[in-house]
Amino acid sequence: MARFIMEFERPLAELEGKLLELKALDIAATPELVAELADLEREVERLRATLYSALSPWEKVQVSRHPERPKTEDYVCGIFDDVIELRGDRTYADDQSMFTALATLGGRRVMVIGHNKGHTTKENIARNFGSPHPEGFRKAERAMRLAGRFGLPLVTFLDTAGASPGLEDEERGQAWAIARCLETLAGLPVPVVVVGIGEGGSGGALAIGFGDRMIMLEHSYYSVISPEMCAVILHKDAARARESAAALSLTADDLLSMGIVDEIVPEPPGGAHREPGTVVAEVGSRIASALDTLAGADREELVDRRYQRLRAIGVYNEAS
Amino acid sequence: MPINDWFKQREGRRYTVSGQDCAENATETVPDGVWRSCPQCKGTLYQGDVARCMSVCPHCGHHFELIAHDRIAMIVDPDTFEETDASLTSADPLCFAAGKPYRTSLDRAYERTGMADAVITGRAMLGGHPVIVGALDFRFVGASMGSVVGERIARAFDLALEERRGVVLLVASGGARMQEGMLSLMQMAKTSAAAGRLAGAGLPYVSVLVNPTYGGVTASFAVLADVIFAEPGAMIGFAGPRLVEQTIRRSLPKGFQSATSLQGHGMIDGVVPRAELRERVSTVLGYLMPAGTRGGDA
Fold first, then answer.
1. Which of A16, B80, B190, B192 is deepest in the core (most CB within 10 A)?
2. Which residues are within 8 A (CB) of B85 and not within 5 positions of it... i.e. 6 or more apart?
3. Same-domain status, A120 and A22
4. CA–CA distance from B240 to each of A51, B173, B248, B252 (Å)?
5. Distance from CA of B92 to the nearest CA of A (A)
6. Residues A36 and A119 in one domain
7. Do the interacting molecules here have an ipTM over 0.90?
8. Residues 6+ away with beta carbon under 8 Å from A56
9. In this structure, are A20 and A122 located in the same domain?
């Protein structure tokens, strides 16, 4: 499959193309070409490392959306055993844009909820490109309640551009479904570990996107509004998303400094999709240690601490 | 009394207030001697008549926009409102300067409204019931929810919990305030958590959605109420109509996202004209307030 090339990676991609062409040649007998190949390989690596050490917010948004980036199901397959998928909201449908399952992480029994982007176009159409309908949020809320009743810690994976904004989504109560998730998640008497693996788009992400430990991949984002939509509101021009991405403070680093995120998982140069196995394994061990830290906490204390944490978020002036 | 007459008599009592004579609830903030036109019936109206009818068109019943202070004055018992947390004002934590700088938007909103931010909250009595009441004002940066709105709403729920009061919120909003980025998005979680704690304590929360209520405010505290009413003609939703239209690539059906259509889809408990609102909310509180805190219990 041809690699999906992001605009800012184009100079790098051209070099990589040349490298591939050279590698295809039978050059073992030509020492100067072998040397040149090695030089070029080093050059590509250097360029990639430089590029990825200083990605702009808008470039990070593009990496977070890369079609080959590991998705929720890659983490589920790579990290958990004995996975029993749970389906359906018991009201209307099984929304495949939201994944819910019972799963085990190194002996720890948990509930997993994640936005379910696909790898192929066919998968993505079936899953509405990871943008949940109200049924998806109701399914997630059902899984949360189940986890709460049976004392299973909750692990969520965020990867959505946002809640689906269709006509029927509105008619079936999109806002009501999201709000109910927020209320249930806030009051859940089990540990909640959240991992931002790709896109964290607005209310659709937040519905399963806050808890007791907040982990984010280096090039994932979490934002109140998509940079494109923000640009449309500010300039009536989606093409100015680069500016709004910078203005919105949506990167993992930004959110760490605001205290919204607790830890960042570094990605290899080129992004998580260059070395998915390494990234998935690292995320697995981060989740495991977060769960171990939170294990044994008193149910009421857990809910109270989560509430105090939420209450502390916000910056304002108050005259004394 | 023959049973049929009895039914007829009950029929007349079904709705508590007729809606025309509302002089006693008049909000007097509009200067007299000004004419305005009604966008619905196109009639030319004397401002004084409109004000006397709670800013409702006396001809067609169109509900004009109201400022937050008037909304509160209209629903609480006279002279019982006592504002809380009035000194909270917005900071500019992200130094947001894309497009119009956030500072400029705030300054314009202060000038235009004289408010500290987009919400007013405080203690009041409503039909004799002790409540925390709040109202959002669309003139202030589209009544969007940033840190101040989120904090005041959360404090409203916390205070109600502490003082065993009900909560009544009159909600309008364009959604989360994007100029405060993720801090705004997290206010959705914060306010929902606070509403959930009130619910857990068995205290009632009634919300009244007015035109327009959208985005992150709809998808959080606004719809977590035990009983939800809406004003006639209010547009309410998550995604704005233009976005929905772009998504489905065809025009929207008539009445889409209107209060009436939401009632039809089972999302709200009723569309209530302004003139009947106080009575209706007060009656609901009478049913839901825990014994000992109800008006008239003392």
1. B192
2. A318, B121, B151, B152, B155
3. no
4. 38, 12, 13, 11
5. 8
6. no
7. yes
8. A8, A242, A245, A246
9. no
Q: How far apart are CA A162 and CA A174, in angstroms?
A: 11
Pair A180, A248: CB distance under 8 Å: no
Between the two ends of chain A, the Cα-to-Cα distance in Å is: 62
Q: Which residue does chain A place closest to B240, by CA atoms?
A: A165
Alpha helices in B27-178 (DSSP H): 47-52, 68-75, 102-113, 147-163
Q: In total, how many domains does chain A have? A: 2
CB pairs under 8 A between A and B: 193
Using one digit for the tens of pLDDT, what is the confidence trace for A294-304? 998 999 999 99
Of A172, A175, A224, the CB nearest to B176: A224
Taking contacts as CB-CB distances below 8 angstroms, the residues of chain A near B194 are 307, 311
Beta strands in chain A (DSSP E): 81-86, 98-105, 108-115, 154-160, 192-200, 213-217, 263-265, 316-318
Q: Is the peptide bond before B212 cis (omega within 30 degrees of 0)?
A: yes
Q: What is the CA radius of gyration of chain A?
A: 21
Give A309's contacts (C-beta < 8 A, 6+ positions apart): A212
Task: For residue B176, list chain A residues with Cβ-Cβ distance below 8 A.
Answer: 202-203, 224-225
Q: What is the pLDDT along chain A (320 residues), one digit of tens a residue?
A: 456 888 888 888 888 888 888 888 877 778 888 888 888 889 889 999 999 999 999 999 999 999 999 999 999 999 999 999 999 999 999 999 999 999 999 999 999 999 999 999 999 999 999 999 999 999 999 999 999 999 999 999 999 999 999 999 999 999 999 999 999 999 999 999 999 999 999 999 999 999 999 999 999 999 999 999 999 998 888 889 999 999 999 999 999 999 999 999 999 999 999 999 999 999 999 999 999 999 989 999 999 999 999 999 999 999 87
Q: What is the CA radius of gyration of chain B?
A: 20
Q: Note the CATH architecture for domain B66-288.
A: Alpha-Beta Complex (3.90)
Note whether A237 contacts B: Cβ–Cβ < 8 A.
no
Put simply, the answer to whether B186 touches A170 (Cβ < 8 Å) is no
CB-based contact B158:B194 (threshold 8 Å): yes
In Å, how far is A176's CA from the nearest CA of chain B?
6
Instruction: Identify the domain containing residue A29 by its residue range.
Output: 10-54
Give the span between the Cα atoms of B59 and B67, in whole angstroms.
22
Q: Are B56 and B70 in contact (CB under 8 A)?
A: no
CA distances from B184 to A45, A174, B93, B178, B259 (A): 39, 19, 11, 7, 26
Query: Does residue A316 fall inside a structural domain?
Result: no
Alpha carbons B79 and B82: distance in angstroms, whole number: 8
Note the pLDDT tens digit of each residue in B81-136. 999 999 999 999 999 998 899 999 999 999 999 999 999 999 999 999 999 999 99
Residue for token digits 């089972």? B266
Give the CATH number for residue A250.
3.90.226.10
Reading the block at residue A200, the tokens are 């964290």
